[in-house]
Amino acid sequence: MTRDITCQLGTEQSRSEKRHRVVFFTDEDGHEIRVVTSLMTVSAEDIAAMYKARWGIESFFRWIKQNLNVPTLFGTTENAVYTQLYATLSAYVLLKWLHQQAERAVLKSSLSFAGFQSLLLCNGLPVQWQSPIAEILYQKRETHRTSLSNFG
After folding, report:
1. What is the mean pLDDT of each run of 10 residues along the chain (152 residues)?
2. Residue 11, Cα to own-chain centre: how many angstroms?
3. Contacts from 121-130 at CB under 8 Å and sequence distance 24+?
C-alpha cells in the first residue's frame, strides 16, 4: 500500500456529496493500482488483498470465456454453473492432451491448439494429424478394454 486518502469525486459542477476512500498500491509488475471504495473501517492492506483476489477471479473467468468457448452460462444456479464449468474444463483437458500427444507424432507440422480445436471440430484436420490421433484413441480404447476384461 502506497497511499490511503479520502476525497469527493467528480468535477466542481457535479461533485459527490459523500467522501470516498482511495487506496493506492502496486501490483506484482510495479504498476500503481487505485481502488475507490466506501469501506472506511477496513484496513488499506485488506482492501488491496480483496482487490487482488477479485482480480484473480475476474482473470479466471476471462480465461474460461476465451479458452473454453463459454461466452455465457446456460443456468444461473450454483449447480448449473458448476456442471457447465466441469463439462467444459473436462473437454478442454482432453482436447489439450490429444493435441499434445498428436503434436509429438507430427514432427514437421506445427498447429496451434486453437487451430487444432477449430479443425478438429470442423472435421478438417490434415491427414498427418488424423493418423496419430486415430492411433492414440485406438490404443487408449484397447488399453481400457483390456483393463476392464481383467477386472471382471
Report:
1. 84 88 89 90 90 89 80 85 89 91 80 88 88 83 66 60
2. 38
3. 129/102
Report pTM: 0.57
129, 111 Cβ separation under 8 angstroms: yes
**What is the DSSP code string of the chain?**
--EEEEE--B-SSSB-SS-EEEEEEE-TTS-EEEEEES--SS-HHHHHHHHHHHHHHHHHHHHHHHHS--SS-S--SHHHHHHHHHHHHHHHHHHHHHHHHHHHH--S----HHHHHHHHHTT---HHHHHHHHHHHHHHHHHHHHHHHHH-
Lateral strand order in the sheet of 32-37: 3-7, 20-26, 32-37
* pLDDT (0 to 100) of residue 142: 66
Query: How far apart (Å, rounded) are the C-alpha atoms in residues 53 and 148?
Result: 44
Distance in angstroms (rounded) separating the CA atoms of residues 10 and 23: 17
What are the CA-CA distances from residue 69 to residues 62, 63, 135, 150 (Å)? 10, 9, 27, 39
Give the type of residue at 44: A
Residue with cell 464449468: 85
